Amino acid sequence: MDNKRVIFAIAGSGKTTYIINQLNLNKKSLVITYTINNIKNLRDGILRKFEYFPDNIILLPYFTFIYSICYRPFLSYKLRAKGINYNRNANRSAKQTENKY
């Protein structure tokens, strides 16, 4: 039986430690995290546990997962996208006009 989990919890509750403790060399694991800082924490924890980064563990930041696994294989050809643009669009920000946003 596949073991699929999504873990939501407050900061400092032990999510990263729990995830690292659940990883083993006998099963494939995909770990997705939202923050770049937690990518480093998870990578460091995995390296401490196994003393190398196993091939059966994939560690991805959220937007890399969305782009490379969800979007790119299915929609990039149709929409002709060339990647993700992280530059801020000035036209999409709320601006104050007459005391209203």
Characteristics:
mainly alpha, 101 residues
Secondary-structure blueprint:
Blueprint: H1 15-22, E1 29-33, H2 36-50, E2 57-61, H3 62-79
Parallel strand pairs: 1-2
What are the secondary-structure elements, in order, as H or E? Answer: HEHEH
Average pLDDT works out at: 82
Strands of the largest sheet, in order across it? Answer: 1-2
Helical coverage, percent range: 40-55%
Q: How much β-strand is present in the residues? A: 5-15%
The profile of the biggest β sheet is: 2 strands, parallel
Gross geometry: extended
**Helical run tally:** 3
Describe the overall structure:
This protein has 101 residues and is mainly alpha-helical. The protein has a domain at 15-81. The protein has helices at 15-22, 36-50, 62-79; strands spanning 29-33, 57-61. It has a two-stranded parallel ribbon.
Q: Summary?
A:
The protein is mostly helical and about 100 residues long. The protein has helices at about 15-20, 35-50, 60-80, and strands at about 30-35, 55-60. It is about 40% helix and about 10% strand.
